Structure prediction request, 648 residues.
Amino acid sequence: MALPAADQIKMYRTMVLIRRFEQGVAEAYADGFIGGFTHLYIGQEAVATGAILSLNHDDYAVGTYRVHGHALARGTPARSLMAELYGRTDGVCKGKGGSMHFFDAEHYFLGGYGIVGGHLPIGVGAALACQMRGEDRVVMVFFGDGASNQGVFHEALNMAKLWDLPVVFVCENNLYGIGTDVRISSSFDQIHKKAQGYGMPGHVVNGMDVIAVREACDEVVRYVRHGSGPVLLEARCYRYQGHSMTDAGKYRSVAETELWKKRDPIPRLAKSMLEQGTVDQARLDAIDAEANETVQDAMSFAEQSPPPSPEALWQDVFVENDHA
Amino acid sequence: MPERRYFETVGIALGEEMERDESVFILGEDVGLIGGTFRATEGLMAEYGSQRVRDTPIAEAAIVGLAIGAAMAGMRPVAELMTLNFGIVAMDQIVNHASKARYMFGGGVRLPMVIRAPGGGGTQKAAQHSHSIESWFMNTPGIRVVIPSTPYDLKGLLKTAIRSDDPVLFIEHEMLYNTRGEVPDDDYLLPFGVADVKRPGRDVTIVAWSKMVHEALRAAEMLGDEGIEAEVIDPRTLDPLDIDTILMSVARTRRAVIAEEGWRNVGVGAELAARIQEHLFYDLDAPVQRVAAADVPTPYAKNLEKLALPDARDIVEAVLKITL
Ligand SMILES: Cc1ncc(C[n+]2csc(CCOP(=O)(O)OP(=O)(O)O)c2C)c(N)n1
Ligand SMILES: [Mg+2]
Prediction:
């Protein structure tokens, strides 16, 4: 049963927006508007897109520092994200968080975190809250292959299964943790099979194929929402840029990178939709133009947004501002 | 004398010690094939092989824990934490295990191990990646805390750390890696617990370490233009602490400013101010001043980060407050 045309088009639009957004970020970083650590999501768009579009609007998502794509897929406006990257008051975290730390309660996005693995139990905790309140929400937690070697990954999986919490663990296996190949950092690189150690179902999916990710997630989310307990889904994917803006990624061979570029999820979906007659080329071009416009608009919005006031330094340490 | 960069000096000291002593080995994230995130271990894997220069998974607690075990069993591990921020994941191993073993086991064990980690902020890496938390470890009996400000000090102190039979936390600074200084090619050691007078002066004593030494020296230049001669003292090791050199200086200048990059609240400055007043209460012409980070999580936005972190201008202001 094929996904409805409208869903396919929405996924295409989301992936293209993420790609154009990240290209805009690279430009703004080079121009000095963005600082700190900035990790691009180019190449992995199909994972956040397919996975997050399988959620209800009020399901929770939690991410890492490579988080621009997830927030966009969740529905946070490009303007608020770009303003955050520029460190401005209109940013989604008022300029306090930057690239690694988006948070958007309005879109049920529980944050981007910079400590590898640190956010995994946070997602499990949100799922615990949903279960305790009898809500039928699910929590989707994204993390990398590298994170699966942190102790806290195992602690989080165990507790999630122990209490059958509604969590979907999505491991974005892009084969590297910075410069370290998963094969030299993991004793067993079939990450989805680690679920078995906790009595939890584990699946693997082609993370370069948004339809495959979406179909897998639709099924997994249904299972988890039904109260059957957590699932670990491994999406095999590849980041096209370096680990962050300051990494040239020289530890990967050109041949390897070229091979994965041939699997680019965006042209892949375009081709399949064109072949099926879901869209024509003009429609695809319009989607691309629209994404470009959104990103350009976000960049000029961000540039015009004022930097935080000096008083902001002392605000929001606590809810009650008794500080300083 | 050859000029060396701070990051290069780390590699030189490690190489010399590995050459000298077969039991010295390195473990950490991206230390081998990549040569270290800050290039500190560049070339060492090629020279000493992957047994003695080990790339590890992202698992800080286990990296430090393994170092402890290997040290107990007769090796001299040098564990690298990619940054001190991730050392927080390993706090249990550092504080509950490394710092406790010898005393708790009645002196029955030696832990000849070094944990190297760069700390510090100043490049918009936001709240989770900007820690200067040397005070946490200074507050923990049983672990040495070494924190060099120049390539010369770094080489001599790192070699001493590796030869020490006690656990040493060796804190580098991300923003110092590209600084240069003269470093002899000889095999020299610098003793722990000996402060260095980085600039002599008669009017005020500024105590600073790590990157703040450079801010203090810049401040001293500016103060010199106003006819105030500041003495800059770098303790170089916080545990053991050379309090005598500091007290002797303050006894002469009768004024003291402590400048640190970490938070002010219960910072190293609080301890130093307490010790100075305990010994020199009647010799002081003014209250001891502390220059430190604002007590807030480090913000991303450039203007806020600048306000949050202390610099030379803040030191000048503190000095003027007690000299005018
Ligand atoms: C606890 C901790 N250790 C180390 C780092 C430095 N670091 C940031 S990202 C990263 C690699 C993570 O790889 P992976 O989980 O595969 O995610 P990816 O970046 O590939 O998306 C490392 C080592 C960190 N941020 N936190
Ligand atoms: Mg990865």
Q: What stands out?
A: The interface with chain B takes residues 35-37, 87-88, 93, 95-101, 113-118, 146-147, 149-152, 177-180, 184-186, 251, 307-308, 310, 312-314, 317, 323-324 of chain A (CB under 8 Å). Chain A has one domain: 5-295. The mean pLDDT of chain A is 97. The two ends of chain A are 60 Å apart (CA to CA).
